[in-house]
Amino acid sequence: MKAAQSVNNAAGGQPIDVYRRMIEEIQDYAIIVLNPEGIITNWNRGAEKIKQYTESEIINRHFSIFYFPEDVRSGLPQQLLEKARSEGRAYHEGWRRRKDGSRFWGSITITALHDEEGAVIGFTKVTRDLTDKKFAEDKLAAYTAELEAQNRELEQFAYVASHDLQEPLRKIQTFSGLIRENIGDREFVERYFNKLESSAARMSELIRSLLGYSRLGKARFEATEVDLNGALEEARQDLELVIAEKGAVLETGNLPVVQGSSVQLRQLFFNLLSNALKFSDKAPVIQVACSIEEGSCAAAEQHALKDYYCIEVRDNGIGFHERYRDKIFTLFQRLHQQDQYTGTGIGLALCKKIVDNHGGYITARSAPGEGSVFSVYLPVTAEKPNPNV
Amino acid sequence: MRELPQRCLLIDDDADDREIFGMCIERMGNPVEFFAIDGASSAIKWIAQHPEPVPSWIFLDVNMPKMNGIECLQVLRGMEQLHTTRIYMYSTTTDVAVEKECAAKGATGFIVKPVRISDLQSKLRQIFSSTTSSHIS
Q1: Do the Cβ atoms of A18 and A12 come closer than 8 Å?
Q2: Is B44 helix (H, G, I), strand (E, B) or coil?
Q3: In angstroms, what CA-CA distances link A187 with A113, A141, A182, A261, B30?
Q4: Chain B residues close to A174, C-beta within 8 Å
């Protein structure tokens, strides 16, 4: 045993402790020794490299210094030590703290050291920095989630394409069959040619709006600072004719600057305003205002703990029943027959997709005859997934 | 005494489809008393206001604004007086899952809206004749 651990150096002088040297010089792993209370008694080069403390700075400190305050508060360092004491070893993966306060994703094994009688005389703690791996994994998970979401969307898209596009196409076929059978009846032919043409026009309108919807991919915009006052104003200008025609009044409060796509946010306002203008039975009064919603949001549990701007678009239109508040955001879902209010049923689905793309959410509340309020929640700060990278 | 024709309802929000269905019944020589209604909630109201005779057949469009055909089916199947009524779902496209759901909720059958009016005629002739005989006996 002795021979394996020590070799004589070339000069034939003092024997060298190979194991000690090896541990000291390993750079990829932080290998440290703790006394039974968790005080650091030994430090290697890897530990200095990963955690940034020099040997003289760290010896005699408690190892909980590598943990973030919330982990210390929850007793994690002590729990790991206790586990190693009772079971021989403890393994953990989690965020740890470097000297400069930055974090790294550590994979940690704490092993108890025993004396001849079996009493614990200390611990070795081996830590590996897996931050890159962690980020790669997180990125992969996020990518997978996005792919899954896209898949679901594609399914919906395929369903819509098969059903809603089939409908006018079927009618075109039916009408042309009828025309053929009644080719001599001028009045009949005239009437059904008109129907045939309006079905074709409808189909082309559906295809155009589907295409517009499918182009709203999340990955396709670089977020920039967008002044929502400007986006709203542009949308208002696009709708100037309809606003004048309907004698509508648009009252706007001061809106914030957010991170996002100016094109999409303008489209968002365009569709919300169009919706308010369309579903009205008197001169529309549309109010747009913004407030800040802090922390928790009753509207959607998963969005808690973040601050959101809440942009409300309120109208005095025909409103809708509470039970349709989710349905209205579904692609091609309409609440009215074509002869009452025309449209493809894509506007609010588009709004939802745009708001989703911006890490926010949209809700609506209304009652028949009492106008509607659409609330768009957009994050106050853009998401920063890796603050320490 | 001559027996009254049996009643047949179509519930469909699409005016063209109502017209085509009506044209078809007319071409068949009006074998049934036909009413076309433009939506689920107005149909439910209509049925309540016109209890007699109970419709023998209801054709129900699946894709309708507000209350859709499947939701309407559930309401209709909850109406005591309609327990002998044959309710056929009537839709542009079909999908195994939707058909199963409708069958589970009490639909008699599922009909894909035919392209040709003659196909719709033969389908209806088949439905009216088979159910008429079983109904009368």
Answers
A1: no
A2: helix
A3: 100, 63, 10, 52, 23
A4: 20, 115-117
> CA A110 to CA A114: how far, in whole Å?
13
Q: pLDDT tens digits, residue range A75-127?
A: 999 999 999 999 999 999 999 999 999 999 999 999 999 999 989 999 999 99
Helix (H) or strand (E) holding B64: none
What distance in Å separates the CA atoms of residue A171 and residue A174, rounded to the nearest whole number? 5
Residue B11's nearest CA partner among B65, B53, B84 is B65
Give the global pTM.
0.63
Q: Which two tokens stand for residue A289?
A: 């205002």
> Each residue of A233-249: pLDDT tens digit?
999 998 988 898 899 99
Q: Which of residues 193-212 of A touch B (CB under 8 A)?
A: 195, 199
Q: Which of B89, B96, B113, B115 to mutate to test the interface with A (most CBs of A within 10 A)?
A: B115
Is the CB of residue B96 less than 8 Å away from at least one CB of chain A? no
Phi then psi for A237, rounded to 5 degrees? -65, -40
Instruction: Say if B92 is an interface residue toward chain A (CB within 8 Å).
Output: yes
Indicate the residue of A163, A335, A337 with minimum beta-carbon distance to B93: A163
Measure the CA–CA gap between A95 and A98, rounded to whole angstroms.
Answer: 10
**Rounded to the nearest 10 degrees, what angle do helices B69-77 and B40-49 cross at?**
20
Please state the ipTM of this predicted complex.
Answer: 0.83
Residue whose pair of structure tokens reads 């929640």 in the numeric block? A377
DSSP alpha helix (H) spans, chain A: 2-5, 18-25, 45-51, 55-58, 69-73, 76-87, 131-181, 186-214, 228-238, 240-246, 262-278, 347-357
Residues of B with CB below 8 A from A338's CB? 13-15
Query: Which one of A173, A199, A334 has the shortest CB-CB distance to B115?
Result: A173
Whole-angstrom CA distances from B54 to A19, A104, A297, B7 are 95, 74, 50, 7
CA separation (Å) from A115 to A36, A78, A119, A120, A122? 12, 21, 6, 7, 9
Look at residues A363, A251, A362, A383 and name the one whose alpha carbon lies nearest to residue A316: A251
Query: How does DSSP classify residue A282?
Result: S
Residues A174, B93: C-beta atoms closer than 8 Å: no
**Chain B within 8 Å of A334 (Cβ-Cβ)?**
yes
CB A376 within 8 A of CB A256: no
**What 3-state class would DSSP assign to A344?**
coil
For A388, residues 6+ apart whose C-beta sits below 8 A from its C-beta are A102, A103
Chains A, B: CB contacts within 8 A come to: 44
SS3 content of chain B, % helix, strand, coil (to 5): 45, 20, 35
